[in-house]
Amino acid sequence: MKIIEYLKSFNRKERFHLVGQLLGNCDFTLDPNIFGKLLVLMNLETPSYYYSAMDYHLDWIYASVVLASDNAIFPKERDNLCITATQEDVDFLIAFVDDTDVTHLIMIEAKGDTSFTNKQIESKANRLKAIFGDDGFKWDKVQPHFVLCSPARPQLLNLDSIPAFMLNAKRDGFRWFRLYMPANQRKVTRCKENGKASKNGTYWKVDGIRLLDS
Known about the structure:
By secondary structure, this protein is an alpha/beta fold. The protein has 2 domains: about 1-180, no CATH class; about 180-214, no CATH class. Helix content is about 25%, strand content about 25%. Strands 1-2-3-4-5 form a 5-stranded mixed sheet. Helix 1 (about 1-10) runs antiparallel to helix 4 (about 60-70). The termini are far apart.
């Protein structure tokens, strides 16, 4: 449980604590049905206890693993991929210890209306490979897992530089979990006077996303 206690101690995200308090769910307790489906993807058993958090920094994950390894003599020389002092994160983190004393770290990356890009995924893969090793066994009794979550299964993602632990059992793609987005949503788009979208436009408009026929 040491890693989980360290993970908790790093989580200073005010959004996490605010959302938890406002919803009366400070522990971010997961829906058992949804959690069960996630665990099936990785062939894992349901734990009796877990820790979950949103927008969790990769720096904090690495630091927690180092602290739990009893290798906590500081200052340490910085590995530029393991500690970047940036806010690069995973959208959701679930951590628990199984019956064999292995700590599982499930890292979920989500996209709603935009698509996953090779640039983004490869950046995250490079860091996770440095933190956990290509096979995920860099640290004793720590097993990382990675899941993509989106409305449609991601396509055309390059797998050449992706660590094995980030892929599915067949190593032919990422583990994927469907994200259900509501219909009848809208977005504000910057545009030109003629309505053509432009990041430098001096006009704006409202576009519909997944609008249902009235």
